[in-house]
Amino acid sequence: MKFYNISIIFILILSYSSLSGQIKCVMENDTILRQSQLDSFSILYPDCTELESISLFTSNIKDLSALGNLKYIKSLIINRTAINNLTGLDNLQRAEYIMIRGNDDLKDFSALKKLKYLGTLTMTGNNSLKSLEGIEVDTVMWLVITGSKLKNLKGLGAKYCRNFDLYDSYLDDLSGHNLQYIQHAQLSGVGNIDSIHTLNPEKLLIEVSPRLHDITPLNSLTNLKWLNIAGNSNLSWCSVDIICRNLDNPDFSLEVNWNAKGCRNKVEIREGCISGTESHIIEEHIRFSPQPVMDVLNISGLSENTPYMIINMVGDRVMSGITYESIDMSSLPAGMYVLQLFDKTKQKVLKRVKVVKM
Hints:
Layout: E1 12-16, E2 23-27, E3 31-32, H1 35-44, E4 48-57, E5 72-79, E6 94-101, E7 117-124, E8 136-146, E9 157-167, E10 178-179, E11 182-188, E12 203-207, E13 226-230, H2 241-246, E14 253-257, H3 266-275, E15 287-289, E16 296-300, E17 306-312, E18 317-323, E19 326-328, E20 335-342, E21 349-357
């Protein structure tokens, strides 16, 4: 009786696709623990181009060259290997799921130059990785980066990205990428969001980021329609322009929970919006007179026609328009109001001030 060493012989079921003409491979045992196992793949099945799944484990694996013919992988896991690059995946064009975790010698993704579609890509650890050069695809449905030592997102690109998740990476520079359209972004463990405008998502979750103190960069977002800010223990000021303007907007979804006092709920945020104490407003040369005002409020320091909005002390908008030198407030009843001047895009507040109407 002849016995086979299953550590180096793969048992595969091969089928042929009448549509693509490619050879599909389904491995009965898809967990690879030794380099010799992986090397046997290209020898025994040199024509295989589509693989159902393969999982590579342990530092014994140092070279992916045996996968050089693959154009499609449904599931690929590369976990705690000793590879320093992804050479061997040079012909890969489509993958439904890739996890690359804990490969501390891995330095680049440049071999993925032919990859066009990604279902889910999860990158965890990989502590020698300095760049994401090579991940430039047409579509990625879910992109997850967690626990890395990346300094920025340089090299990362997609024409469409449905979900982008950044967890506990201490990556505070979100720039450098070429992600052209992000539907949903989720940030956790971030210290600042100064480059959030480069992501510009429709939906955004910022959670569990104790280093985060300032969310004023949200004012630069132009696509945002859904915002959830939760569990940021040192975030005490959420009354930034984009939130104040959309507090009562039925087409804008806002949730705030478990942040520091001042950003625990919409009531606290509304109080901040009305008080007008937003510290990042720097247009100090703009002046208003007289104070209090009877009828016409004069404005100095503007260089062009400027959008404005006046809200009462319960947060209702009572007047808006364009001004250059003055605003006629004679139609308003006596009381205290908050006047906001915007830049021409209406995305940034140039000045916010309390006005008393007599």
